[in-house]
Design a protein that fits this description.
Layout (H helix, E strand, L loop, with lengths): L1 H16 L8 H14 L7 E2 L6 E2 L1 H15 L1 E3 H8 L3 H14 L3 E4 L2 E4 H18 L1 E3 H8 L3 H8 L10 E3 L2 E3 L1 H16 L5 E2 H16 L8 H14 L4 E4 L3 E4 H18 L1 E3 H6 L5 H8 L4 E2 L3 E3 L1 H16 L3 E3 H4 L6 H9 L2 H8 L3 E4 L3 E4 H17 L16 H4 L1 E2 L9 H16 L7 H8 L3 H4 L5 H6 L5 H8 L4 H11 L2 H11 L1 H5 L9 H56 L6 H34 L16 E2 L2 H10 L2 H13 L5 H15 L8 H19 L5 H8 L1
Antiparallel strand pairs: 1-2, 3-5, 4-5, 6-8, 7-8, 9-11, 10-11, 12-14, 13-14, 15-17, 16-17, 18-19
Helix pairs in contact: 3-5, 4-5, 7-8, 9-11, 15-18, 19-29, 21-29, 21-34, 27-29, 29-30, 30-31, 31-32, 32-33
GO molecular function: ligase activity
Pfam families: E3_UFM1_ligase (PF09743), UFL1 (PF23659), WHD_UFL1_5th (PF25870)
Keywords: Coiled coil, Ligase, Transferase, Ubl conjugation pathway
Length: 725
């Protein structure tokens, strides 16, 4: 058998060495292979080598690549392409097949690495670790030219077997080194008796290790200390509680905290959050609620229900007696106003009283029974009624109420004293010529015939003017007297202010002063703020009732004033025309101007101010006695001081015009007085009739008849008839 094999080998060798008579070129071989593939004789894939002179099958390529991987343990795909002489694309394709079929291989960053390679690397790392006690994985990754994550994933399953060490925070430590550092952490933690931030402790241990190991030592991460610490806590070698991972509270400190809080709360029935924060409890409310669920949290304190029971008994007694109570005087000194307000709202009797409107809480800590507040309100309301009602005076002056009562009525012997009668006769005469009788609307009709009427009297529309409709005297006063409702309300609000009420309250409740309340903001201001709207509302109702009662009287006052002004203004216009006859004699003219201002003008101003003052007081709800009607021959007379006081007591827009009118009486010309009179008439809504030809003739006829009657006894009858003609 052996001889036959040897013979076959010799024949095969001879056939190989024999030269063929027919030689094929490379091109012919390529075409022949392609033809065989087309005919299906070659039914498998063929890969060209990079030289182009050889064919290789994928199976053969995989075998050659696997042989190189087993040989080297770690080889790059580029090196495999060079070794096999095949294009890199085919090498990458076959590498994927090889790695997917073999779980001991991995393809990373263009390299195929076997587990045997990692075993060898792990053994080398272990040898180095035993020499240095600690190794940084970043250095190993840099040497192997791979990522740190890959090194960690490779070393973790080999820890305890091929690698005798502990992996923590990106570093490898030997068991001896771990035990050494663990002992340091245990000792440092057991020496802590107060809450501590562990980060500071780890910094101290790092400095200690640097001093111990010297320059050769590697910096230890804080996570390594934290891991050892957590293990010690879990094993029970260190007692305490860890919060947020870094805040360590030893059990001895927690026990001391608990004893301190229990002792204070049992003795005082309350404890402040500030005290717990000083004890190192960062969330005192949650801590107390967890330990004492029956307690009640306030704004700055945590109290036991017994405090509420004590305060509730005192508050119930004060409400039943119809009195008041300061809860801060019952509670301990540590309670603030906000705490007092909250604990008051938790008292059952207070809740019941508030619901049934038997009590109110003011100033956060004060509780008043409604009966007490009502009595105080009644006293203040009576006090306001007995005052001179400064709230109703537009300028705040209440000293002018005596002007009407004290105004003297005197008789003036001058001829102008009868001007009222003569003026009335003239108006009646002029009216009879027009309608045959005198009516109450004569002044309105006469005013409508005056071209200046539309400038002095406000009207609603031209349509009303054409129809002869004019606003009544009461409507004019409402729009022109300057006493708007908003202004009066604002004046009342300013008059009854909190500053005005506080002394009154102090006088009615001397207990407030006896308790030594230094800051009025605590209760006086809240109490005054509570009573002020009630007093203003009461005042408003009284004024409303008084205004309703005085409405007809106000209308009557304005109607009478309009009638008086009509007569006086017609007379003074007639006298003003007469003064023009003496312009050539300056000295006589000045005397006559002054005489007219001192007599007729002064009487007219006195009448105007008195009636405007009465109307103002009636409008403001003040009680005004009916003045005694003076005789027609006895016009009212005021002193200069009374005139100024009455002018100032009016509303501000009207007061300015009234003062100007009073000052015009001291002027040298009647024209100044007439200008001021028109201004105040326009402001107050009064209508000033212009003297026309018809009224002038009537007035002159009346005066001529009057003087003839007076002079008849002294003069002859014939001479009087001559004068009449």
């Amino acid at each position: 058998m052996d001889e036959e094999l040897l013979e076959l080998q010799r024949q095969f060798e001879f056939a190989q060495q024999a030269k063929s008579s027919i030689r094929l070129s490379e091109r012919n071989v390529v075409e022949l292979v392609q033809k065989l593939q087309q005919l299906g004789i070659i039914d498998f894939d063929l890969l060209h080598t990079t030289s182009g002179k050889e064919y290789i099958t994928p199976e053969q390529l995989r075998k050659e690549m696997a042989a190189e991987i087993r040989k080297l343990g770690r080889v790059s795909l580029i090196d495999l392409a060079d070794i096999t002489g095949v294009d890199l694309y085919h090498v990458e394709t076959q590498a994927g097949h090889i790695v997917s079929n073999d779980s001991t291989l991995m393809l990373i960053n263009g390299e195929i690495i076997s587990n045997s390679y990692w075993d060898i690397v792990a053994e080398e790392i272990n040898e180095r670790l035993q020499e240095c006690s600690q190794i940084v994985l970043a250095e190993i990754a840099a040497q192997l030219q791979v990522g740190s994550e890959l090194v960690v994933s490779v070393l973790e399953p080999r820890l305890g077997t091929l690698v005798k060490g502990r992996l923590e925070g990106g570093q490898l430590y030997t068991p001896a080194y771990v035990a050494r550092v663990s002992a340091m952490v245990r000792g440092a933690a057991r020496g802590i008796f107060v809450p501590t931030n562990l980060s500071a402790l780890w910094n101290s241990l790092q400095d200690l290790l640097q001093e111990t190991d010297g320059a050769s030592g590697v910096a230890v991460e804080g996570s390594f200390f934290q891991s050892l610490f957590n293990g010690l806590v879990k094993e029970g070698e260190i007692l305490g509680s860890l919060r947020a991972g870094v805040h360590w509270t030893p059990s001895v400190f927690a026990m001391a905290q608990k004893e301190c809080v229990d002792s204070f709360l049992s003795q005082n029935s309350y404890i402040s959050y500030e005290a717990l924060q000083k004890l190192g409890i960062p969330q005192p409310v949650q801590y107390l609620q967890a330990r004492y669920p029956e307690g009640i949290p306030l704004v700055t304190l945590f109290v036991h229900p017994s405090i509420i029971e004590m305060l509730d008994a005192s508050a119930e007694d004060a409400i039943e007696r119809g009195s008041w109570m300061d809860s801060l005087s019952v509670l301990p000194a540590s309670f603030g106003s906000q705490d007092a307000s909250k604990i008051l709202s938790l008292c059952p009797s207070v809740q019941k009283s508030l619901k049934s409107s038997k009590a109110i809480i003011l100033g956060e800590s004060y509780i008043f029974s409604n009966g007490f507040v009502k009595d105080l309100f009644d006293h203040l309301e009576k006090g306001i009624e007995t005052l001179n009602l400064p709230a109703f005076a537009s300028t705040g002056q209440s000293d002018n109420l005596h002007v009407i009562k004290d105004a003297s009525v005197r008789h003036d012997t001058l001829p102008e004293s009868n001007e009222t009668g003569t003026g009335k006769q003239a108006v009646e005469k002029g009216s009879k010529k027009k309608k045959g009788k005198f009516t109450g609307n004569t002044k309105v009709e006469a005013a409508e015939s005056d071209p200046d009427y539309h400038e002095l009297a406000p009207t609603k529309s031209k349509k009303n003017q054409k129809k002869g409709k004019a606003p009544t005297s009461l409507q004019l006063s409402d729009s022109k007297l300057g006493l708007r409702k908003d202004d009066r309300m604002e004046e009342s609000h300013n008059a009854i202010s909190e500053e005005w009420l506080i002394p009154k309250i102090m006088a009615l409740i001397p207990d407030l002063e006896e308790q030594g309340i230094g800051d009025p903001e605590t209760i006086l201001v809240p109490l005054a703020s509570y009573l002020r709207p009630m007093l203003l509302n009461s005042l408003k109702e009284r004024r409303k009732a008084a205004f309703t009662q005085n409405a007809q009287r106000m209308k009557r006052v304005l109607d009478n004033l309009q009638h008086k002004i009509d007569e006086s203004f017609l007379n003074i216009q007639l006298y003003e025309k007469a003064l023009d006859l003496f312009e050539d004699d300056p000295s006589t003219s000045v005397l006559l101007h002054k005489h007219l201002l001192r007599t007729t003008a002064t009487s007219m101003v006195d009448t105007l101010l008195l009636d405007l003052d009465i109307h103002n007081k009636l409008r403001n709800g003040m009680e005004v006695e009916e003045p005694q009607k003076p005789k027609k021959s006895e016009p009212a007379s005021l002193s200069p001081g009374d005139r100024a006081a009455l002018a100032k007591s009016l509303a501000r827009p009207l007061s300015v015009k009234a003062l100007a009118l009073v000052e015009a009486l001291e002027a040298k010309r009647v024209e100044t007085f007439m200008t001021a009179l028109r201004a105040i008439a326009e402001e107050s809504g009064l209508i000033l009739k212009k003297l026309d030809k018809k009224l002038e003739r009537s007035l002159l006829h009346s005066y001529r008849k009057l003087w003839c009657t007076r002079l008849q006894p002294q003069m002859g009858l014939e001479r009087v008839r001559y004068m009449q003609s």
